[in-house]
Amino acid sequence: MTVQIIKFGDMLMGRPAGKDAFLLAESHLFNSLNEAEEVIFDFADVKVLAPSWADEFISGFKNLHKNSLSFINTENPSVKASLKTVLEPVDVSKYRRD
Fold first, then answer.
1. Pairwise CA distance, residues 21 & 36, whole Å
2. Angle separating helix axes 77-87 and 51-64, nearest 10 degrees
């Protein structure tokens, strides 16, 4: 299944908006997923992707589904930076007080 993220808008910002988009997708798209089906998030034509929106949408999906997930059309600097922020683990050891 390919999910065209542009259907949620071309400027995707804010945690509440990301959660609303995920809940909409969950009720209309993801509810009939087969666990073996690969899911592709297509970011074609998205102008702005904020990390907060991406976190709500992607984490919401990953928390409820075990499907393989991939991303395409991520060349936009905003999309690329937000995905990096959301998907890369944080090294918390840098923030520890000894």
1. 23
2. 50
Q: Is the pTM of this model over 0.70?
A: yes
Q: In the structure encoding, which two tokens stand for residue 49, read together?
A: 């992707």
Instruction: Pull the structure tokens for residue 23.
Output: 């809940």
Decide: 86 and 58 in contact? Cβ < 8 Å.
Answer: yes
pLDDT per position as a tens digit, 12-61: 999 999 999 999 999 998 888 888 999 999 999 999 999 999 999 999 99
How big is the chain, counted in residues? Answer: 98
**Where do the structural domains in the chain lie, given as residue ranges?**
2-88
What DSSP designation does 31 have? Answer: G
